[in-house]
Amino acid sequence: MLLKLALRNIIGNGWRSLINVFIIALVLTGLIWMEAMWFSWLRLAKTQQQEWEFAGGILRAKSYDPYDVFSWERAYAPIPLAAQAYIADGGIVPVLISPSVIYPSGRMMNAMVKGIPHSQDLLKLPSADLQSTAGDPIPAIIGTAMAKSAKLEAGDIFTLRVKDSAGAFNAIDLQIARVMDCPVPSLDIGTVWIDLAALQELKQIPGTATTLALRNASLSAVSSSDFKEIPAKEFFADLDQMVKTKASGQSLLFLMLILLAMLAVFDTQALAIFKRRKEIGMLTALGMTKRQIIRLFTMEGALYMAGASMLTAILGFPLFYYFGAKGFSLPAGTEGFGVAGFNEPIKFSYPAPLIVSTLIILFLLTVLVSWLPARKIARMSPTAALKGK
Amino acid sequence: MNKLAAIVLLALCLGLGAALPDASAILRAVDANLTSSSAKSSTRMVIHGKRSSRTVGSINWSQGSQKFFTEYTAPPREKGTKMLKVGSNLWIYSPGTDRTIQISGNMLKQSVMGSDLSYEDFMEETSLAEDYSSTVEGETVYDGRACWILNLTAKKPGKAYYKCKLYVDKTRSVILYELLYAKSGKLLKSVQYSDVARIGTRWYPRYILFKDELKDGRGTEYFVESIAFDISIPPGTFTKASLKK
User: The complex's ipTM?
Assistant: First the structure.
């Protein structure tokens, strides 16, 4: 009976109810859209980093601390003997890094040179282009961001200078074999890729590597005391943290929208209680308990939410479908932010827990703001209510 | 006939060998000119950029080959900036921020005030005779002076420049031209010395032109306006505390 009464009241409210439902639906659509964007971006960024850098797991030389620039000059260790067979069959990819200076078009630039076997196919990096031909300059690959900052194009020749393991300068000419579209900025910005053997020779450190990318985590058994396994949680911690920070920044905006929507519901309910005093008195006189009347008003609020959920499903569906199918392209220039997942449209996915949790949060909030003004009813005297006082 | 040719060739080789002096003796003489127990100099560095040039003035103190202290006096923006090198450590003090930072790792590769010199060049210790094995390639006339051409190869693997070629003034034992190579044989830097003057008992170049051969530009000119050798330097000059004084 309460439900019927509540429904009748909502319909009776006319435009006011429709506006409330519409506002809640709008906020709900925005919330789901935003949550789906962060979720899908994080998923895409992780997938890309996995395909280009992490593979199934990673072993890192203990002497290498990515956060300590002073460690980079000596960031290598002998490749474990047990890993050799897997390297040969492509199950493990060694990568060597070294700080360097490059001289594109007579300018001087600091860069990180990274060596990777040209024959590898575990990581998506197009390393096949790094195979050198005798007599020609050593081929190098750079990403589009690096090409832009160094003003380099495919075919350009420039000099690379590094310090070898003993500290002596060594320099060679490199030729850009390819400018790749790399979705992981840390593999692009300020980075030059050459063949692993060439870098090992340049640094005079044959048989060494900084990291070992593994086809699957079980291959971490090949590790030696010079390497340590980096768990996926640790590897992606920065990305998780960044998305969390950015998402919480955006949440502030949506928190304000939710507040506005809730204010609208609260206002409607408060006004209704004031305007419907006679009705409340009548209901009490007919035998309804105050608790039942409070429940009636709270239910009206919950019905707003139910209506908004249906409206979201109807109005939001084309929007959700569009972003799921076509994806969300970030504005030009954002690839320089230094985070993966920015170079291709983010195709949204809407996992059920995400939608359900958003619905529950908004539902509870709507019920709460409907219940808050309804508490006043408990303090009303039925006779005064009947008189409309 | 073959025997005769061999004898002539041997005689030629011996003759040539006799004409060329001992390369390490030349290097020792060069070291004697360049190194001192202590020195104080006033210098001016003219850095030529693509669009303009700027002059950096400094007063420098040194003790042996391990300790250097430089205070920049010009331009106004750099005035008060100090640099201290003790062994393999290098610190820079910036008066603008009142901070001292240690230059290390990748930062050593950066250019000093936009010049053709990197901090790594400052870290180099110079005792040519000790650090390099050398051979005399021949002789030539450079900048109007008769010179020996010396080829140097680092004795220790850690020397920044593995190979060098020097043009050394025959009579004054001063380097007039220096070419610095990478291990691969690629020319990295060239240094020209001129305006050689007699300072006390030694010959010393008062004009040096550094040129990073991998970079475009006219290089960096270095003028030694005054220099005094074997002087007494106040104690505490080569300490981090002196950077903030």
Answer: 0.81
